Amino acid sequence: MTGPLAGIKVLDIGAFSVGPVACSLLGLMGAEAIRIEPPNLDGLIFVGVMVGQHGQSYISSHFNKKSIILDIRSGTGKELCKKLIKWADIIINNRRLGALEKMGYGYDELSNINPRVIYIESTSYGTSGPWSKYAAADHFVQAASGFASINGKEGGEVEIVRYAAHADINASLVIVSAALSGLMAREITGKGQKIETSHLQSTMSMQVNRLSEFFVTEKTPALLGSANVHIVPSQAFKTWDNKYINISVHKERYWPKLCKALELQSLQNDPRFKTNAQRVKNRAELIPLIQEKVADKPAYWWKLHLRRCDVPFGTNYDYENLSSDPHVQANQWLFDMDSMFGVIKGYASPWNFSKIQTEKMTPTVKPDQNRDEILKMLDA
Which of 73, 124, 271, 333 lies deepest, with the highest CB count within 10 Å? Predict the structure, then answer.
């Protein structure tokens, strides 16, 4: 193994995507990760487009790890699980609160087996309070955390950010940061510890800027579609060919340039729009004027024109556009991998270290694929 975590051993006893993705990301950093799959298989295996009887959601959540099926509740499976606990540096669990304790795997039991283990428990809603025993999922947590309340079209209904597992993957990254901090603390103290987080906590923490806005104003932020609440203009505009381009005047020096690019020089010194504060106040009057101009030309024309005029803009891509874009290809962020499911897409590590290489993504294996290898290692 290569990478900054080479030599670190991670045990995945989580469910669905939050814990398992965190383990896979640690695997990209060079850790050796082993997944304990329950005998009835994790529910994620049936989610998404099916590829060889495995849901694509499962395949995308278990890269860079080995797999063994164990019934950890009794008998041989329990003995093997204890050996893996002793083997591990980090154990990650995101099952419902109390689920592992009922099977005899609370932190006290784990630390007796392995005092140096870093045990990370990411519950759904925390370890106390009326919601603590409830199960969570990405869309439930988006709703419960207030995240859905700030998303949606102006004047419309609140919306869940769908299909991207936004809250799930953010929770995975919180677990990764906990794992790295736990390793650093162990280097200093020589001791392992339990680290608690939750799906709801993680989703609240990623909204710190909008939550602070609420605490200052005591008002729930209004729905604005793609628009930025503090900067005007800063949103997506529909072009002549029914595509979208994002335009943002995040510094005052770009306002005259945008007015010139749109041939709306008369707005530059208009008292209603001269400063960002005035533009925010008069958003409803300004945005239609910009939209009318943008709708007159296709998206590609605007990309060339705005770049030439030094106006900040962004492109709205779908996945086909993204995967075929020369910039993505030049950075080799996507590549083909041979797997047990055929040729699938791999993703480059999101980290580049100057003095050490991270692991290349390796494809998810079928449940129990590495049983013999793992048993041999445990008997060594």
Answer: 124
Taking CB atoms within 8 Å and a gap of at least 24, the contacts of 328-337 are 337/361, 337/362, 337/363
Give me 373's structure tokens.
Answer: 């290898």
In the chain, the domains with their CATH numbers are 9-206+353-379 (3.40.50.10540), 234-322 (3.30.1540.10)
Count CB atoms within 10 A of the CB of residue 38. 17
Whether the ω angle into residue 256 lies within 30 degrees of 0, i.e. cis, is: no
State yes or no: pLDDT of 162 exceeds 80. Answer: no
Closest among 90, 102, 109 to 182, alpha carbons compared: 90
Q: What is the chain's length?
A: 380
Which residue has tokens 């009326």? 130
Q: To 10 degrees, the CA torsion angle through 346, 351, 356, 361?
A: -20
pLDDT tens across 283-315, in order?
Answer: 999 999 999 999 999 999 999 999 999 999 999
Say what percent of the chain tops pLDDT 70: 100
| Contact (CB, 8 A) for 279 and 230 | no
Nearest-Å Rg of the Cα atoms of the chain is 25
| Three-class secondary structure of residue 216 per DSSP | helix
**Cβ partners under 8 Å of residue 244, min gap 6:** 236, 237, 238, 299, 316
Type of residue at 78: K
